[in-house]
């Protein structure tokens, strides 16, 4: 259950960074932080999510769905 909460929180953080980058792109303020900072956080978060899911499947904390046949 902890893994699911952690992945859900990381997904929300990823979406937050996506919208933060969008607001910077639309604002076009020269004093704002670079948009690549938030896009980079989003990419790093998605890599952490994939690694966490692979680790959880490998250790048996979560089990994938069985094949439908």
TrEMBL record:
<keyword id="KW-1133">Transmembrane helix</keyword>
<feature type="transmembrane region" description="Helical">
    <location>
        <begin position="6"/>
        <end position="23"/>
    </location>
</feature>
<keyword id="KW-0472">Membrane</keyword>
<feature type="transmembrane region" description="Helical">
    <location>
        <begin position="43"/>
        <end position="63"/>
    </location>
</feature>
<dbReference type="InterPro" id="IPR021313">
    <property type="entry name" value="DUF2909"/>
</dbReference>
<dbReference type="Pfam" id="PF11137">
    <property type="entry name" value="DUF2909"/>
</dbReference>
<protein>
    <recommendedName>
        <fullName>DUF2909 domain-containing protein</fullName>
    </recommendedName>
</protein>
<keyword id="KW-0812">Transmembrane</keyword>
